[in-house]
Design a protein that fits this description.
Largest sheet: 7 strands, mixed
Radius of gyration: 20 Å
Shape: globular
Strand content: 15-25%
Structural class: alpha/beta
């Protein structure tokens, strides 16, 4: 099976498995796991932030970040196509008493400033209205096709947030894909957000874990909230060891995934009845198949040895990653051509 459903299917490489086996361990609750401490320092330095914290998942990393910035009864402004809004089980409301105000994502993943402005009540003293506490952005933007938010746009939202007295959180689950796609250090992206979440277990190919990086006070709140939610792990160095290998050695290879995504898109676009939209900027390819229900096509593709996923709005998603080679892409295209014939 050629696995293209998600980059969460990545497997740790030999270097990661060796690092896990040889990791120096301590009790992370007490701050005494040296490997976790090393990972957190490395992540903070790479993102240009004073501090970072290891968490078990991206969902918990986003949730603790939201709760760190937002009091009960406030609301967060999120994209209607954002992972935070669609795929994280309304955790901010359930656990933090924080409301969501979804606003439309433009096709390029951005949120229009006038729409953001309309999310703020004209009279902040009117007790009928929940006040915004946080703007959440996502880059690369999954549901919009792995698109990258431009640096100038991030800077404009940060300035807007500052004018309105709210923080910015970046769901950067694939922020290293965005950085590689832009050809800039990841800190250039992170500088425009108060906190940034990124996943170790997607394209970076570690088996477990996500990081939150930000200022020391926000990360301290995240650490406390992690404990409340049951996310503090003891000898977590076995998780952190793989993350260190990922950050030190596997960031640049994300460019291979992007090249394979373009290879896949080019092949799909050459098949009659297939429309690729948008053209991939990172490792995510979204496409439509004419005159065939998505569910039927995905099932037929799986039977032919290619695992894909339906992705709403009549779309199919394919995600390239370290477990997929250029040769695999060619085999997948051959199989999909046979399915469509």
């Amino acid at each position: 099976m050629i696995e293209l459903r998600s980059d969460t299917f990545t497997q740790p490489n030999r270097a990661m498995r060796h690092a896990i086996a040889e990791a120096r361990l301590g009790d992370n609750f007490y701050g005494e796991d040296p490997t976790v401490n090393e990972l957190e320092a490395l992540a903070a330095a790479m993102l240009g932030k004073p501090a970072a914290c290891l968490l078990p998942s991206g969902t918990m990393a986003n949730l603790t970040s939201i709760m760190a910035h937002s009091q009960r009864g406030t609301k967060i402004i999120v994209g209607a196509e954002s992972d935070i809004y669609l795929y994280e089980a309304a955790g901010a409301s359930v656990c933090g008493g924080v409301g969501y105000e979804p606003v439309p994502n433009r096709p390029d993943g951005t949120l229009d400033e006038e729409v953001l402005r309309a999310a703020f009540p004209e009279d902040r003293d009117d007790p009928q209205f929940a006040l915004p506490s946080l703007i959440c952005l996502e880059s690369s933007q999954n549901r919009c096709g792995g698109v990258i938010l431009p640096l100038a746009y991030l800077a404009s939202v940060r300035a807007f947030a500052g004018e309105h007295g709210v923080a910015v959180h970046l769901d950067g689950a694939r922020v290293f894909n965005a950085a590689v796609g832009l050809g800039v250090p990841v800190a250039r992206i992170a500088e425009h957000a108060d906190t940034v979440q990124f996943c170790l277990s997607k394209g970076l190919s570690a088996p477990i874990g996500s990081m939150v990086a930000g200022d020391a006070a926000s990360v301290a709140k995240v650490r406390r909230l992690r404990q409340m939610l049951g996310g503090t792990m003891r000898q977590a160095g076995i998780v952190a060891a793989a993350g260190i290998v990922a950050l030190r050695h596997l960031v640049d290879r994300l460019a291979d995934d992007h090249a394979n995504a373009r290879r896949l898109a080019e092949g799909l676009a050459a098949i009659p009845g297939v429309t690729v939209d948008p053209w991939p900027q990172t490792n995510i390819v979204l496409f439509r198949v004419d005159e065939q229900p998505v569910g039927d096509f995905v099932a037929a593709a799986a039977a032919a040895g290619v695992a894909l996923g339906g992705f709403g709005h009549g779309r199919v998603r394919a995600v390239t990653h370290s477990g997929v080679t250029a040769t695999d892409i060619d085999h997948a295209l051959d199989a999909l051509q046979r399915v469509l014939k």
